[in-house]
Specification:
Elements lengths: L1 E5 L3 H9 L6 E2 L14 E4 L4 E5 L1 E6 L5 H15 L5 H5 L5 E7 L4 E5 L9 E8 L4 E3 L2 E4 L5 E3 L6 E6 L4 E3 L2 E4 L1 E9 L13
Antiparallel strand pairs: 1-12, 2-5, 3-4, 4-7, 5-6, 6-15, 7-13, 8-12, 8-15, 9-14, 10-11, 10-13
Protein backbone atom coordinates (compact mmCIF):
# COMPACT_ATOMS: atom_id res chain seq x y z
CA UNK A 1 0.00 0.00 0.00
CA UNK A 2 1.25 3.46 -0.95
CA UNK A 3 -0.15 6.49 0.86
CA UNK A 4 0.24 10.04 -0.41
CA UNK A 5 -1.24 13.45 0.29
CA UNK A 6 -0.24 17.10 -0.08
CA UNK A 7 0.29 18.46 3.45
CA UNK A 8 3.05 21.05 2.96
CA UNK A 9 2.78 24.42 1.23
CA UNK A 10 5.20 25.55 -1.47
CA UNK A 11 6.58 28.12 0.98
CA UNK A 12 7.24 25.41 3.58
CA UNK A 13 8.97 23.26 0.96
CA UNK A 14 11.25 26.15 -0.04
CA UNK A 15 12.14 26.56 3.63
CA UNK A 16 13.05 22.86 3.87
CA UNK A 17 15.23 23.09 0.73
CA UNK A 18 16.92 26.12 2.31
CA UNK A 19 18.33 23.94 5.07
CA UNK A 20 20.99 22.68 2.62
CA UNK A 21 22.75 26.01 3.18
CA UNK A 22 23.05 25.23 6.90
CA UNK A 23 24.18 21.61 6.81
CA UNK A 24 27.10 19.84 5.15
CA UNK A 25 26.73 17.86 1.93
CA UNK A 26 28.26 14.40 1.95
CA UNK A 27 28.84 11.43 -0.32
CA UNK A 28 26.06 8.93 0.12
CA UNK A 29 28.47 5.98 -0.16
CA UNK A 30 32.19 5.37 0.26
CA UNK A 31 34.38 6.76 -2.52
CA UNK A 32 35.68 3.29 -3.39
CA UNK A 33 32.19 2.25 -4.54
CA UNK A 34 31.86 5.16 -6.98
CA UNK A 35 32.35 4.70 -10.69
CA UNK A 36 35.51 6.68 -11.50
CA UNK A 37 35.04 10.45 -11.96
CA UNK A 38 31.30 10.35 -11.23
CA UNK A 39 28.87 10.41 -8.31
CA UNK A 40 27.38 7.18 -9.65
CA UNK A 41 27.30 4.07 -7.48
CA UNK A 42 26.93 0.59 -8.92
CA UNK A 43 25.73 -1.90 -6.33
CA UNK A 44 25.52 -5.64 -6.89
CA UNK A 45 24.86 -8.66 -4.70
CA UNK A 46 23.37 -12.08 -5.30
CA UNK A 47 19.82 -10.68 -5.33
CA UNK A 48 19.99 -7.40 -7.25
CA UNK A 49 22.00 -4.59 -8.77
CA UNK A 50 21.24 -0.92 -9.25
CA UNK A 51 22.74 2.47 -9.90
CA UNK A 52 22.21 5.62 -7.86
CA UNK A 53 23.46 9.14 -8.41
CA UNK A 54 22.43 12.22 -6.40
CA UNK A 55 23.64 14.68 -3.75
CA UNK A 56 22.68 14.25 -0.10
CA UNK A 57 22.48 16.40 3.03
CA UNK A 58 21.75 15.18 6.56
CA UNK A 59 19.02 17.42 7.95
CA UNK A 60 19.02 16.93 11.73
CA UNK A 61 15.99 17.01 13.96
CA UNK A 62 16.59 20.14 15.98
CA UNK A 63 14.75 23.26 17.12
CA UNK A 64 14.80 24.67 13.55
CA UNK A 65 13.53 21.56 11.76
CA UNK A 66 11.31 19.81 14.29
CA UNK A 67 8.21 21.56 12.85
CA UNK A 68 8.26 19.67 9.57
CA UNK A 69 9.39 16.36 11.04
CA UNK A 70 6.53 16.55 13.53
CA UNK A 71 4.07 17.36 10.73
CA UNK A 72 5.02 14.37 8.56
CA UNK A 73 5.26 11.95 11.48
CA UNK A 74 1.80 13.03 12.68
CA UNK A 75 0.35 12.58 9.17
CA UNK A 76 2.01 9.15 8.91
CA UNK A 77 0.60 7.92 12.24
CA UNK A 78 -2.88 9.33 11.54
CA UNK A 79 -2.96 7.81 8.03
CA UNK A 80 -1.51 4.35 8.71
CA UNK A 81 -2.40 3.80 12.37
CA UNK A 82 1.30 3.08 13.05
CA UNK A 83 2.20 4.80 16.31
CA UNK A 84 5.71 6.13 16.72
CA UNK A 85 7.59 7.09 19.85
CA UNK A 86 8.40 10.50 18.37
CA UNK A 87 9.43 12.18 21.61
CA UNK A 88 12.03 9.51 22.24
CA UNK A 89 13.30 9.66 18.66
CA UNK A 90 13.41 13.44 18.52
CA UNK A 91 15.64 13.42 21.59
CA UNK A 92 18.10 10.91 20.09
CA UNK A 93 21.53 12.49 19.56
CA UNK A 94 22.34 13.07 15.89
CA UNK A 95 18.84 12.12 14.66
CA UNK A 96 18.63 13.18 11.03
CA UNK A 97 17.14 12.32 7.67
CA UNK A 98 18.30 12.85 4.09
CA UNK A 99 17.58 15.69 1.71
CA UNK A 100 18.26 14.51 -1.86
CA UNK A 101 19.20 16.73 -4.79
CA UNK A 102 18.99 15.13 -8.24
CA UNK A 103 20.53 17.08 -11.14
CA UNK A 104 20.44 16.30 -14.88
CA UNK A 105 21.52 12.69 -15.42
CA UNK A 106 20.95 11.66 -11.80
CA UNK A 107 18.68 8.71 -10.97
CA UNK A 108 18.11 5.86 -8.54
CA UNK A 109 17.47 2.52 -10.21
CA UNK A 110 14.87 -0.03 -9.13
CA UNK A 111 15.55 -1.32 -5.60
CA UNK A 112 14.09 -2.02 -2.18
CA UNK A 113 15.31 -0.39 1.04
CA UNK A 114 14.73 -3.30 3.41
CA UNK A 115 17.78 -5.38 2.64
CA UNK A 116 20.97 -6.71 4.16
CA UNK A 117 22.15 -4.10 6.67
CA UNK A 118 18.73 -2.40 6.78
CA UNK A 119 16.46 -5.15 8.10
CA UNK A 120 15.04 -2.92 10.86
CA UNK A 121 13.84 -0.33 8.31
CA UNK A 122 10.09 -0.84 7.89
CA UNK A 123 8.61 2.33 6.32
CA UNK A 124 9.80 4.94 3.83
CA UNK A 125 8.40 8.46 4.07
CA UNK A 126 9.15 11.35 1.76
CA UNK A 127 8.32 14.93 0.87
CA UNK A 128 8.16 16.19 -2.73
CA UNK A 129 9.85 19.58 -2.34
CA UNK A 130 9.66 21.02 -5.87
CA UNK A 131 8.29 20.28 -9.33
CA UNK A 132 10.26 22.48 -11.76
CA UNK A 133 12.13 19.61 -13.47
CA UNK A 134 11.43 16.95 -16.09
CA UNK A 135 12.04 13.24 -15.78
CA UNK A 136 12.64 12.18 -12.21
CA UNK A 137 9.48 10.10 -11.94
CA UNK A 138 9.14 8.50 -8.51
CA UNK A 139 7.61 5.08 -9.14
CA UNK A 140 6.62 2.34 -6.70
CA UNK A 141 5.53 -1.14 -7.82
CA UNK A 142 2.69 -3.10 -6.26
CA UNK A 143 2.63 -6.84 -5.51
CA UNK A 144 1.62 -7.51 -9.15
CA UNK A 145 4.57 -5.42 -10.39
CA UNK A 146 2.24 -2.67 -11.62
CA UNK A 147 3.71 0.86 -11.47
CA UNK A 148 2.30 3.48 -9.10
CA UNK A 149 3.48 6.94 -10.18
CA UNK A 150 3.81 9.19 -7.14
CA UNK A 151 2.57 12.75 -7.44
CA UNK A 152 5.06 15.47 -8.32
CA UNK A 153 2.86 18.11 -6.70
CA UNK A 154 4.89 20.30 -4.37
CA UNK A 155 4.23 19.38 -0.74
CA UNK A 156 3.10 15.83 -1.48
CA UNK A 157 4.14 13.33 1.18
CA UNK A 158 4.37 9.58 0.65
CA UNK A 159 4.57 6.52 2.86
CA UNK A 160 5.11 2.92 1.86
CA UNK A 161 6.60 -0.27 3.25
CA UNK A 162 10.38 -0.52 2.93
CA UNK A 163 10.20 -3.79 1.01
CA UNK A 164 8.32 -2.07 -1.84
CA UNK A 165 10.19 -1.92 -5.15
CA UNK A 166 10.72 1.69 -6.22
CA UNK A 167 12.87 3.93 -8.37
CA UNK A 168 13.51 7.53 -9.40
CA UNK A 169 14.00 7.84 -13.16
CA UNK A 170 16.71 9.99 -14.72
CA UNK A 171 16.42 13.76 -14.45
CA UNK A 172 16.14 15.29 -17.95
CA UNK A 173 16.12 18.98 -16.98
CA UNK A 174 16.08 21.07 -13.82
CA UNK A 175 16.82 19.92 -10.28
CA UNK A 176 14.66 17.61 -8.15
CA UNK A 177 14.59 18.01 -4.35
CA UNK A 178 13.04 15.56 -1.90
CA UNK A 179 13.36 14.65 1.74
CA UNK A 180 13.58 10.96 2.64
CA UNK A 181 12.68 9.69 6.10
CA UNK A 182 13.39 6.16 7.29
CA UNK A 183 11.17 4.58 9.93
CA UNK A 184 12.72 1.71 11.88
CA UNK A 185 11.25 -0.95 14.16
CA UNK A 186 12.86 0.67 17.21
CA UNK A 187 10.83 3.83 16.61
CA UNK A 188 7.50 2.07 17.13
CA UNK A 189 5.55 2.93 20.25
CA UNK A 190 5.24 -0.35 22.16
CA UNK A 191 3.36 -0.50 25.43
CA UNK A 192 4.93 -2.71 28.06
CA UNK A 193 2.77 -5.65 29.03
CA UNK A 194 2.92 -6.35 32.74
CA UNK A 195 2.61 -9.89 33.94
CA UNK A 196 -0.23 -10.65 36.30
CA UNK A 197 1.88 -13.26 38.05
Amino acid sequence: MVYQKVIFTEKECKEIIGYIKQYENFLVTPKDSLIENTRTVFYEDTESHWVKKYNVWDIPIDENTKWFYDKIYTWFSDTTGVKLDRDSYFNTPNAAHKLHEYTVGDKFDLHIDKSRGNLDRIWNLGIQLNSNYTGGDYICYDEKNQPIYLSKEVGNVVAYNSDTLHEVTEILSGIRYSLVIKVHTWELLVKNKKSLL
